[in-house]
## 1
Amino acid sequence: MLFAASCALLTVGFAAGLGIASLAGLQEGGPTVKGCPPGDLTASAAAPAVSMAASAATLSAASSGSGAPLGLPPPEASSSPSVAAGWGEPHTLSLASAPRDVVFTEDGARAVVLGDDGALTILAVDAPAQRQTVALQGHPRRLRLVGPHHLLALDAEGALPLVDLRTLGVTLLDAGGPVSEGVMLGQGRMLLVASAQARRIRRFIGTGDAGEASGWRAAGDLLLPRAPLRLGVLPGNPELVLVLAPGGSPADPGTLEILDPRIEPLGVSRLAFSLVLDPAALLLSSPGIPASPGAGPVSGSTESLVLDRGGAQLLRVTPATVAITPLGAAPRGGVVGAARLRGGHLVVLDAAGEALVLAEAGGASLARIPLGRAPAAAATTPEGEALFIVLAGGPDTSDAEIAILAGDPPALAARLRAGRAMGTTRVAAAAHRLAISSAAERSVTIIDRR
């Protein structure tokens, strides 16, 4: 029923070989939907898989090798100073409950901490005695900033808490199941949320204004045959939404879908690529895209990147194509996280305690940077100049550390002491400061640039 409601289903085949897939071809299919002219979102089956420009145009119309390691000092030597040059002393703030997640507001003036008691603690970083608490329903587990003014409390039981950071008002939205992902578009007036449990994407419409007058209302559902695990925004005009829905096995491929959320009904204007996706596939955000929704990318890029196949390949997604770049190095211990930095570089964090630096354009391996410990969490600055990696402490260590990767190509720039960040940790980065939460210590540590 889902695909019968689509204008077309474009299938990209993959041939497996040594763990690396390649584009094989397209098949045209799917019936025409009333209100969506024939030819929209379709491409000729005789056309090469890499040539889908006509499909991109009709989508818009319907919307109207291993490198040498860096010469770095060993971790013991580089981590000896308590304060690295350019950074101040860490300040640790005690919390009433164990933190599950932490984010900064857009200006970096406030840190928002989610506790295991289900409440938000809002800290004024320059006046830490000034704290505000916001109770949330459903015991959410993660935070997601969607634009400069709104925060989603994900994985909550029951309704989804949507927090307006201007007023700290909470709106409860019925998404048809626990919400695992969300994105905001249209100058903060449209919210799409995904429930993996319900296999559903639900659209909400609001005014974008502060206060209860925003009047968020449900405005359409899209039911999927597989669980939507990731949502992302494909930048451009119009903004399009990426949906990653992995399959159960190579014999049961998943889908990567591109949809225009403005078109009625939701999902009628979309492309669906059949892909063998890992359940842990990561969407990599573009550095330099401002937090303000609808403002458009600084660089003018209209592509997104997906890291897949255990960190062995990169999927480059545009409104017309999905191209695959095999990477020159794969993690030895499994992917912990990944970041897309300015200058055209990717950093893949290996559970074995390494950071792999790769060229975004061709996937060449530039360096393997030893971190000394397995990374526990990571965050980039808003503009993608640096990556901050938490190397959590434990019973045999007094302090956690932050490894900072920066430069062109990225290299280990500094290591910071970060207090006893043990157990579950999270890190958030603003332009001029870091916040590291520690569940075991019931604290959050702030480190500022000097």
## 2
Amino acid sequence: MLDRPAINPEETPETFTGNRGLDQEEPLLFEIGRLETTGVDVDEAPDVAPRLGGLERKGAIGLPGLSEPETMRHYVRLSRRNYSIDAGLYPLGSCTMKHNPRLNEKMARLDGFADIHPLQPVSTAQGALALMEELAHWLMTLTNTHAIALSPKAGAHGELCGMMAIKSAIAARGEGASRNVALIPQSAHGTNPATAALLGFSVRVVPAAADGTVRAEAVRAALGPDVAAIMLTNPNTCGLFEREIVEIAEAAHEAGAYFYCDGANFNAIAGVARPGDFGVDAMHINLHKTFSTPHGGGGPGAGPVVLSERLAPFAPVPFIRRAGDRLELVEHAEGTQSFGRMTAFHGQMGMFVRALAYLLAHGADGVAQASKDAVLAANYVRAALRDVMTQPFGDQLCMHEVLFDDAWLKGTGVSTLDFAKAMIDEGYHPMTMYFPLVVHGAMLIEPTESESKAALDLFIATLRDLARSAQEGDTQRFTQAPRLAPRRRVDETLAARKPVLRWRAA
């Protein structure tokens, strides 16, 4: 255990500026700037006849004017308050917040990639198309599949793509009206049932066994002539490998249904197992998790979808086709079985560059090693905490993330949320809390493959120290946390239901 000095917030002195050394208080831009000035010299606009049909602005725009140093300092100070993977271990389960090599960022900024435009002539973008073709080749090789759609922008968009291909394939068989049910396990990502419902499917839930996985027997019981597909995540949302996935796929195919695999957790098996060998018909791959793209903040994302031979004819446009020694983009679905176009352009070029750079730098053995190291790191955390924190499905091997529940906190007066807030005082972003929903008080930890043993040991020691405090009744450490963050605990329910989105002068 690490010795922890006692913290007394009353001993923290107040300062005239509100700053505490290098922890600087930062007002809003509106409080720094001046509405009557601007930080930029702009020539007077010439008089022109209005063309907005009476919609011209009648008053001042109301934006603050700042100098360049003021603007720079504002955003630098804010950035120092933001936790990031460059600042420390980021244990968010199901999100894979791992280090992204700077080499990949450098490649994405090369001329010809960074400044490419989706509407420029294909003849001027042959290098970009060649990169996309090679990336597609390796993604299909890693998954043992026959076709790929690069255009989906993220995981949920990829789900939509794969299920649209399935819907088109069923319609081509003349069963569009009768096969209208999607099977989805209890522990699935919430986007799975949402995607199915968006496409007009009814959702039939498949229960999980006591160990947190899905049994082929339960799938067979749910199958019928009305089932179009099963949507299954493997490894699943509880961080466990679905051991009966081959039998599940066979049962779905025997019943005339397709198998959509949610590839959100592909980073646990990439280079080790090929989903196509499991019997998967469609799967999205989160390039922004598995293959080195910045994750979070709403983007950028990329969710290419690989398709089996059964579904390959229904892949969306655009797709790349080789014509002699040239590459071309097939932009229109006429004359094919493609379900059409689902996005305006061809995908996220920067994400493609980063992903291919990652693959080429690692090679087949390196990709497999990254997956194995991610699994090793998660099991190291699991083994080091299993005597102080409880696992909802028993003490079993996990994949790239380990799931704990709040049973061990019963009677302590400390909640999962309290525990998360106390982690902030210790300098850590909390793990994923209260997800998956099938586990009460869930705490989902994904250490990723890019953390050193020393970093993991400190993280483990910190959680053990927090666990000891909770068990010994030091509730103040938790219920008043965070005490050392720039802002104390807020009313999160009020913030979500009644957010203040506009600044108004006092």
## 3
Amino acid sequence: MTTSSPFSGKSAVANSPWRVQITYVVIGALFLGYIVIRALHVGAVYDEVMTIETAEKWQFWDILINRGSRHANNHVLNTLLVKSFFYIGNVSLFWARLPNVISFAFYAYFLYKIALRNLSTAVGIGLFVLALANPFLLEFFGLARGYGLSIAFMMGSLYFASEDFKSPSVRKFLASIFLAGLSAVSVFSMLYFFLALTFILNLVPVFRKDAASLKKGLGISCSVGAIFLCFILPVVFRLHKYGQLYYGGVHDFYNDTLFSLAKYSLGSLGNESNVYLALNFLLLSLGVTVSAALFFKREWISLRNVFVGLTTFLVVTIVAAYYLAGARYPIDRVALFLYPLLVILFCFCLNDLGGYLRGGVISLLVLACGINFTLNANFYKVGVWDYEAHTRQILEKVNEEGRRTGRTVNLVCSTVLGKVVEYYVNSCNYSYVHVLGEGAGAVSYADIDFYILFSREFEPLEEMKDGLSDPWREFLNPYKKDVFLEYPKEDIYVLTNFRTSD
């Protein structure tokens, strides 16, 4: 009987399929459990509240065409699914998050298929772990936003693209292009991925000198692309007209896109030097691995090179869009789709190197990734919106204080916290809490019982004309006050007992 080393070039599926597959299932189930627990326990964030309001108030067709909306918060497909889930379940935060929770199962499934069918056992399982164990990525599979959906569709598109490369067929090609289109409908910035994938898929038959496949591919690409672009572009132009495409970087791809993605993935919001160090090391490792694979295994028409070309063209498209059309560089959550794509690129190139070398490298990376996940995993906050991590708990304690004193207390908060505070006060029936809006104008400091302060320096983007300034801070600064609650890690403080300095 022959056996294969875990670092051999052949997949171990032929020898022990059930062991390999159970390993994938167990790993996937553990991360799915993590996401479900987060979806149940993490508090709402501003963008989710906007999504829930849109799903409740708008009709399906209005959501689909973003009718009359002047904001970019409506991730169309996600909002449609949230509205549908409200019909079959209930109007709650968890039900709003369910579409993305479910999408994680599809993301993991297609990732598993790519790894199992194309890589050695060790590298395949390493790819699976690396592409899942990013705490920043997993946060968005447990939120009512479109990012989890878009990345799941992207992974499905990559799977069918890889299968079409190995055994071309109209069905696989169409599935890949269609899923890439759905990814772009989920989050419009995924147009970069859609264009890059379409280009690369049609470039393959050119290198193979397969005119028939090229003709069919171009026909499918143009037809599917026209349908999706006719839907997406009018909405994008409308958002541009109203100045709502402001979210993004204006410096360069490295400092905006890659750095912001690394910062949140590593959970290092306050230590930029360590982020740059880790990012440079990872980019150097990626560059060396890709170069070595291209040098030692010069197989130009290969699935590995499909991912090399896709990633390269994707980056070129993003940079070109900035210089030619003024489109901003994707940052933090908008750039998340690059993470699994870079991991796939790295692992496919690593797979072409020596068995024990790649086994050692993938083991070290999995260990480092596991340590990072352990240090940054949590069940109470979202990195991008960490200042909203404790809103529900704060309101519960403030409401309890009102109940204890037998009167309704007046509450004000930093503007950036207002939407979520309003959501919880309305949905959780905090009957002893009365929120004073910014227009409450003539109130005296003595009329305010509690003030939720987000004290971190928060500079709104220049294009946000309404801003995110905090009028209460300037108003209450001259007065003495006591700290009722504090969450120093997120820079949230609840102040009370306002009085003059006399």
